[in-house]
Design goal:
Length: 238
């Protein structure tokens, strides 16, 4: 389906996309070509209700990298001398999870028991780790595991100001991960980092004529007609 057909489909149903939609355009060409494509984007996006944010829209080279949905994507040269695209956890994403852990371990939560605190903090750590486990994030996950341990240990020290550090260490098992009532502080460092496998340099989509049966190719499992039909049904019953 062409871009014009997409626009007509959504316009007939009054669909407006949320302002938080994220978009990255990758260009294989010169900087001038990339600037020309960027200049054309408003004409492409405005008909479907999208506008570019002046504060967040910029042009950059892949060697400098860019941030997208919490990831930092950048090309670097390996020791072998070959360039490779890496996906890291962005500084902003790491700062965000640290703020959440810090908020949960502030003075206002010291009236809770440790197992109550763990019920709040573990899902936060587990969800963040599951999202970023596909990046080159092993060092980041190790650091986050240490940071969470340190924040909870400090929280326990403040919670029991009259107890000795040795008692706290033994009482809550700080030789490993803090634990109480069959609950243990989640450790992001124990999660295996999984990299996306290379599946071919030519990916067949509903909008090109690439033969997915050819060696080194794959087809996306996406039925556009079925998808648009489900969207139309949801709008009709909404």
């Amino acid at each position: 389906m062409s871009r014009e057909a997409h626009v007509r489909f959504y316009e007939r149903r009054g669909v407006r996309f949320p302002p938080a939609t994220h978009l990255v355009v990758l260009v294989k060409g010169t900087e001038a070509q990339a600037e020309a494509i960027m200049a054309e984007l408003p004409a492409i996006l405005n008909p479907i209700g999208l506008t570019l944010s002046a504060a967040k829209t910029h042009l950059t080279h892949i060697d400098e990298g860019f941030c997208f949905l919490g990831f930092r994507i950048q090309r670097r040269v390996r020791q072998s001398g070959l360039p490779c695209i890496y996906t890291f956890v962005s500084d902003e994403a790491l700062a965000s999870i640290k703020r959440k852990v810090k908020t949960l371990t502030k003075a206002g939560t010291r009236n809770l028991a440790l197992h109550q605190l763990l019920r709040m903090i573990n899902p936060v750590l587990r969800g963040w780790t599951a999202y970023f486990r596909f990046a080159a994030a092993k060092r980041t996950l190790n650091y986050l595991g240490h940071y969470a341990w340190w924040r909870v240990a400090r929280w326990l020290r403040k919670k029991h100001p009259k107890s000795t550090w040795r008692w706290i260490w033994r009482r809550y098992g700080l030789g490993g991960r803090p634990q109480e009532a069959d609950l243990t502080l989640y450790n992001p460092a124990k999660v295996a980092v999984i990299r996306y496998r290379f599946r071919g340099n030519k990916i067949a989509t509903p909008w090109n004529d690439v033969d997915s049966r050819a060696p080194g190719h794959r087809r996306l499992t996406f039925d556009e007609t079925e998808f648009l039909g489900r969207v139309e049904e949801s709008l009709a019953f909404g």
